[in-house]
Specification:
The complex is a heterodimer. By secondary structure, chain A is an alpha/beta fold. Chain A has a single domain, classed as Thiamin diphosphate (ThDP)-binding fold, Pyr/PP domains (Rossmann fold, 3-Layer(aba) Sandwich). In chain A, the strands form 2 sheets. In chain A, strands 1-2-3-7-6 form a 5-stranded parallel sheet, sandwiched between helices. In chain A, β2, α6 and β3 form a beta-alpha-beta unit. In chain A, α2 packs parallel to α8. The radius of gyration of chain A is 19 Å and the shape is globular. Chain B is α/β, with parallel strands linked by helices. Chain B has 2 domains: 181 residues, 3-Layer(aba) Sandwich (Rossmann fold); 126 residues, 3-Layer(aba) Sandwich (Rossmann fold). Chain B has 13 helices and 14 strands. Chain B has a 7-stranded mixed sheet with strand order 3-2-4-5-7-6-12, sandwiched between helices. In chain B, β2, α2 and β3 form a beta-alpha-beta unit. The longest helix of chain B has 15 residues. Classes of the chains: A alpha/beta, B alpha/beta. At the A-B interface, α5 and α6 of A face α3, α5 and α6 of B. Bound molecules: thiamine diphosphate (TPP) and magnesium ion. The site of magnesium ion (MG) has 7 residues of chain A, from β4. Thiamine diphosphate binds next to β4 of chain A.
């Protein structure tokens, strides 16, 4: 599963076209994150921002197989998932800046990025909290007679929290169409997750709960796409939960404030070589794409995010009145 | 009107709402088999296992799944069995249910009812007896209800299910078998945020709720024997709470006792007392008094457990000290 072979469905041309679209999504995520990093350094993003630079292939490859009516839950490191699910980068950037016109009116910021209009049920500031939420959303959709699939993203750190066990078990016993996606970037904040994780790791834990697990190179968008496509199809046909263990790497520090240079230099270098953007690009070149064409995709993405940056920087703060709205209907603020 | 127990009242209310609205469903340990106290008896037979969902012992996921389910268009009624076990779902209640609407800028609602039975009952000791209502009132986002009678358990549960906010619904375990009348027909709800004067009086106001309502009623009876006329305000709804009803009563009696089963320190009685003092302290004949449990874990042995209860005699002493 870790080689860059084209997806099984369709001929080579079709798959090259498909990968081209996934590559474009990845470029948008990368450019968004780089713009966010700049903004944070400029002091325009006041709160914590966790970048997904290096992890774009998993977000794009999984979400590329979902419909707008499908759902996702995400983590503190959620910008990539949100873009891949179809949210507006402009509204997202405003949210990170805490400005009017943000996805949540500037009331949530990066860690609570969400766009319910495209089925993105929210990033979450609490590690592993999205897992039960995803399971319940799938259960409710079934009760409502809708065939939505729910993709649930979480990090390698989440497998050591209780909701991981509870939520996977739950999805199994009720046979829910939840695609669990563990993005294993090797670290949970400053800690190497392997040192804190007993036994053979995330996939074995999933298997032990009866959830079929599929380890994969999470930096290879072709592989992620093919696997996710197959699993989503199975779930849509009535199959139960599935688990992807996507091995990837956080190229940056834990937050924008962390240079991340405390990690072994060889490890960082190795993964900069194994960059998801390079892997996808090489696949497309091998399939006949012209470098200029691919450069144009990158440039478009960078322009879109530069515009989002400018638009967010120029946007006003939210009205003070918004601080007390959407608390609750009955018994509002006191 | 029909006479039912507090427990039956809640079961009827849930069944009525499930018949009325197909998006209402319930989940929790053993609910398919009637629930730990029998509050779900017969529901699975009528509504099937997909709407009356027995779950694993996974409080965090019972609650977290309900949040996800509520955000996408259903109305889950969560059973957490004991308020003490609800603590295993604290993140899912406080960080998720109570905040999702706000932190996502109003993109979603979390119309979930979180049932968590409270209170001292049959030597249940330190981990099965707590009354933690003030924790939830302290958390923006929640509606907090604590019915003390069968009619309120029926009418407030219906209102809670219809409410778009997350509702903490606290039933008192010692009240399951208390009997009372509820309206026939199943359409009558009790409004959230409205207190009820359950005994009119002139000389002193007792504000109370939940299981302590029974203590207040007995104390009022005893006080009447001594020529003191006590008015009892059953708040029923702790957030929002009916300040107007309390102010009106205290305006008349000029004396206020707040009585609850929870630990007195930082109990919700403190909020009521402070609000009355701030608002109408100059009209009080005597300072507000609070009655609640000592700040100790609840002990097992019946005589020790009793020391945590506010007894009628305690209320009477306080009434005397207030110079009525
Ligand atoms: C319950 C909880 N504990 C601790 C934290 C602080 N925290 C935020 S992110 C993080 C590391 C998470 O690691 P992982 O799940 O691997 O995700 P990654 O950051 O690598 O994407 C920690 C410890 C938190 N947000 N929630
Ligand atoms: Mg990690």
């Amino acid at each position: 599963m870790s080689t860059s072979s084209p997806p099984e469905t369709g001929g080579p041309t079709v798959s090259a076209q498909r990968v081209r679209a996934l590559f474009a999504t990845m470029c948008r995520i990368r450019a968004f994150e780089e713009a966010a990093e700049r903004a944070a350094k400029e002091g325009l993003i006041t709160g914590a921002a966790h970048l997904s630079i290096g992890q774009e292939a998993t977000a794009a490859g999984v979400c590329g197989n979902l419909r707008t009516s499908d759902l996702i839950t995400s983590t503190h490191r959620g910008h990539g998932h949100t873009i891949a699910k179809g949210a507006s980068a402009d509204a997202m950037m405003r949210e990170l800046f805490g400005r009017a016109g943000g996805t949540s009116d500037g009331k949530g910021g990066s860690m609570h990025i969400a766009d319910f209009s495209v089925g993105m049920l929210g990033a979450n500031g609490i590690v592993a909290a999205g897992i039960p939420i995803a399971a319940g959303a799938a259960q409710a959709k079934r009760l409502l007679g809708e065939d939505a699939v729910v993709a649930c993203f979480f990090g390698d750190g989440a497998v050591n929290r209780g909701p991981f066990l509870e939520g996977l078990n739950w999805a199994r016993i009720y046979d829910l169409p939840v695609l669990f996606v563990c993005e294993d970037n090797r670290y949970a904040a400053r800690t190497r997750t392997g040192a804190m994780t007993g036994g053979p790791g995330p996939a074995a834990r999933a298997e032990s709960l009866g959830v079929p697990a599929h380890p994969i190179d999470g930096n290879d968008v072709m592989a992620v796409d093919a696997l996710a496509g197959q699993l989503v199809e199975e779930m849509r046909a009535g199959g139960g939960p599935q688990f992807i263990h996507a091995k990837t790497y956080r190229q940056k520090g834990h937050t924008v404030a962390d240079p991340g240079t405390w990690r072994p230099a060889e490890e960082i270098a190795q993964f900069l070589e194994h960059d998801p953007m390079t892997i996808a690009r090489q696949f497309l070149i091998d399939a006949g794409a012209g470098p200029a064409d691919l450069d144009a995709i990158v440039a478009d993405a960078q322009q879109e995010m530069a515009d989002a940056y400018d638009s967010a920087a120029a946007a006003p703060w939210p009205d003070d009145g918004l601080a007390a709205t959407d608390v609750q209907d009955i018994g509002g603020p006191a | 009107m029909s006479t039912v127990t507090y427990k039956e009242a809640s079961c009827l209310a849930l069944a009525e709402e499930m018949r009325r609205d197909p998006t209402v469903w319930t989940l929790g340990e053993d609910v398919g088999d009637g629930g730990v106290f029998g509050q779900y008896t017969g529901l699975r037979d009528e509504f099937g296992p997909d709407r009356v969902v027995s779950t694993p012992i996974s409080e965090a996921t019972i609650m977290g799944a309900a949040v996800g389910a509520a955000m996408v268009g259903t109305r889950p009624v969560v059973e957490l069995r004991f308020a003490d076990f609800a603590l295993c779902a604290m993140d899912e209640m406080v960080n998720q249910a109570a905040k999702a609407r706000y932190m996502f800028g109003g993109q979603t609602r979390v119309p979930v009812v979180i049932r968590q039975p409270i209170g001292m009952w049959r030597s249940s000791a330190a981990q099965h007896s707590q009354s933690l209502e003030s924790w939830y009132v302290h958390t923006p986002g929640f509606v907090v209800l604590a019915p003390g009678t069968p009619a309120d358990n029926h009418g407030l549960l219906k209102s809670a299910i219809r409410c778009d906010d997350p509702v903490i619904f606290m039933e008192h375990k010692d009240s399951w078998d208390v009997e009372g009348e509820i309206p026939d027909g199943g359409d009558k709800t009790v409004p959230i945020g409205k207190a009820k004067i359950i005994r009119p009086g002139e000389d002193l106001t007792i504000v109370t709720w939940s299981g302590a309502v029974q203590v207040a009623l007995q104390a009022a009876e005893a006080a009447a024997g001594k020529g003191v006329s006590v008015e009892i305000v059953d708040l029923r709804s702790l957030w929002p709470w009916d300040k107007e009803a309390v102010f009106q009563s205290v305006e008349k009696t000029r004396r206020l006792v707040v009585l609850h089963e929870a630990v007195k320190v930082c109990g919700f009685g403190a909020e009521v007392a402070a609000t009355v003092s701030e608002t109408m302290g100059d009209r009080l004949a005597t300072p507000v008094r609070r009655l609640g449990a000592p700040r100790i874990p609840i002990p097992y042995a019946p005589p020790l457990e009793n020391l945590c209860r506010v007894r009628v005699a305690d209320v009477m002493t306080t009434v005397e000290e207030m110079g009525v």
